[in-house]
Amino acid sequence: MTTNTHNPQEEFEAAMTRSLERSPELPPLAIPADFAARVVASLPQQRTARPAVRVGRIAAIVAMVVLAIVLFVLAPHASPSFASFTFDIELIVLAQLGAIAYWLSTKAARS
């Protein structure tokens, strides 16, 4: 004697499997031939690229010129002792000139 039991879980899994294995019925996709041309025509016109402005380099060169002028103005008044204020300023100007020269040389090596 065979009993036919009704199992809703098995029916649900069978229905799920059937629906997953069925391929979708979609109409074929058609892209118009002039689609790309219409997209390009609708885009705004590209601006021409501007050249890069090297403001930092120009400012560093101007600063070096100004520091060199300050160095030549201070040189006759500086006595080589650390007690002299003009000598101290002259050393600071020399350090700044060296730092700017180093920065310009490393920046030129990277470019």
UniProtKB/TrEMBL annotation:
Domain of life: Bacteria
Transmembrane intervals: 55-75, 81-104
Keywords associated with the record: Membrane, Transmembrane, Transmembrane helix
Region Disordered, annotated ranges: 1-21
Protein name per UniProt: Transmembrane protein
Organism, as annotated: Granulicella mallensis (strain ATCC BAA-1857 / DSM 23137 / MP5ACTX8)
Species classification: Bacteria, Pseudomonadati, Acidobacteriota, Terriglobia, Terriglobales
